[in-house]
């Protein structure tokens, strides 16, 4: 019980930067959601149940275009979370109950995945719950605040808030990259290949979701083959 409490508090502490970043980014989403015709309640429920920036912003464009429900591209856009979940499952104990895995999967986002995968040893579900308990309220509250009062803010401030998500990614990636040359190389390779996928004609036409999936498989697969993690490191607690 004491160990679970410690893991939960560690998750809360590590989740504070994520929650603050989500608060800023979802504020912009709340503004855009109201502009797309959603009510404040609909905007908040959408953020609470989805917890995905790319998917939600894409959904707003589809809603504004009046497209039918079957044209929603959420499966493609969010397919990367399946890969993240598969990766995190390797850090879970074999005896972990299904209900823990089920509730942990709700909170798998880019930032939570980045923090969780860098944590040494097995991943405690209570650590994930700590992250979720900060990240989800941050994302939902930001949406609420944006939907209610976003129209009162100047355009320059709204534009500045859009940068918050990228700053949050940097905060997740840079610290571990400083201690690992391999991770630094993987990051640089990811940036280079992302640039290639954005400008090569045949690849540029792919959806953002498929680009992320292909890049993840190529880069993560190559890194796993060339620089495998020693088995004993996975069993440290």
What distinguishing features does this structure have?
237 residues, mainly alpha, 75% helix, 0% strand, disordered C terminus
Please give the structural blueprint.
Elements: H1 2-35, H2 40-50, H3 53-64, H4 74-77, H5 80-89, H6 98-106, H7 110-117, H8 125-149, H9 155-161, H10 164-178, H11 181-199, H12 201-204, H13 208-226
Can you give a write-up of this model?
With 237 residues, this protein is mainly α. It has 13 helices and no strands. The protein has helices spanning 2-35, 40-50, 53-64, 74-77, 80-89, 98-106, 110-117, 125-149, 155-161, 164-178, 181-199, 201-204, 208-226. Helix 1 packs across helix 2 (40-50) and helix 11 packs antiparallel against helix 13. The two termini are 16 Å apart. Mean pLDDT is 81; it is low at 232-237.
**What oligomeric arrangement do these chains adopt?**
single chain
Q: Sheet bearing the most strands, described?
A: none
- Global shape: globular
N-to-C series of helices and strands: HHHHHHHHHHHHH
Number of strands: 0
Roughly how many Å apart are the termini?
Answer: 16 Å
Radius of gyration: 19 Å
């Amino acid at each position: 019980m004491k160990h679970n409490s410690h893991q939960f508090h560690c998750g809360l502490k590590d989740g504070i930067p994520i929650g603050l970043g989500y608060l800023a980014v979802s504020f912009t989403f709340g503004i855009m959601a109201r502009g797309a015709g959603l009510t404040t309640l609909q905007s908040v429920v959408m953020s609470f149940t989805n917890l995905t920036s790319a998917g939600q912003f894409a959904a707003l464009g589809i809603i504004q275009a009046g497209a039918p429900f079957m044209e929603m591209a959420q499966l493609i856009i969010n397919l990367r979370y399946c890969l993240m979940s598969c990766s995190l499952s390797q850090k879970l104990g074999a005896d972990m109950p299904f209900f823990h895995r089920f509730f942990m999967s709700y909170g798998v986002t880019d930032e939570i995945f980045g923090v969780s995968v860098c944590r040494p040893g097995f991943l405690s579900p209570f650590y994930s719950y700590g992250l979720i308990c900060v990240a989800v309220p941050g994302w939902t509250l930001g949406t609420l605040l944006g939907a209610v009062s976003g129209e009162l803010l100047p355009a320059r401030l709204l534009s500045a808030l859009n940068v918050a998500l990228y700053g949050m990614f940097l905060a997740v990636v840079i610290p571990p990259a400083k201690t690992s040359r391999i991770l630094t190389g993987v990051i640089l390779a990811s940036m280079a290949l992302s640039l290639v996928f954005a400008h090569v004609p045949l690849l540029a036409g792919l959806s953002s979701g498929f680009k992320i999936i292909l890049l993840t498989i190529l880069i993560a697969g190559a890194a796993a083959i060339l620089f495998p993690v020693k088995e004993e490191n996975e069993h440290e607690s």
